Amino acid sequence: MTKPGKDEVGREGEKLAADFLKKKGYKILRKNYTCNLGEIDIIASDKNVLAFVEVKARSSNRFGPPELAVTRQKRRQIVRVAETFLSQSKIIDVDCRFDVVAISFNRNDNNSPEIRLLQDAFRSDDI
Q1: Which end of the chain is more exposed for a tag (fewer CB within 10 A), N or C?
Q2: Which ranges of 6-71 does DSSP label H, i.e. alpha helix?
Q3: pLDDT digits (tens, 9 = 90+) for 45-75
Q4: According to CATH, what is the number of the domain 6-126?
């Protein structure tokens, strides 16, 4: 069996993340929102908060846990894309946060991926 490619791991990770978030009570509003500045994987509401969710999936921990891939530069880009989304959607006066869903595909004891939600993983004023 061949090792899954990066795109395949990413697509599967985003699907798993959306299902996981729904089970946690999130309402998925948009997937793969794209503008000229970049992309946000998932935009969802969690109670009265608008959550911009970055999904990071890895097939191994060779380079560390998936969340380490959300670098300062990546956080900066996500914030800019979120600001564009809010502006284009004419959304004002809403609480927002940035979450990360980290998925490790190196299978655990029950042969399923490990999924971790890091709520409020970073703030726009931290970058």
Answers
A1: N
A2: 6-23
A3: 999 999 999 999 988 878 889 999 999 999 9
A4: 3.40.1350.10
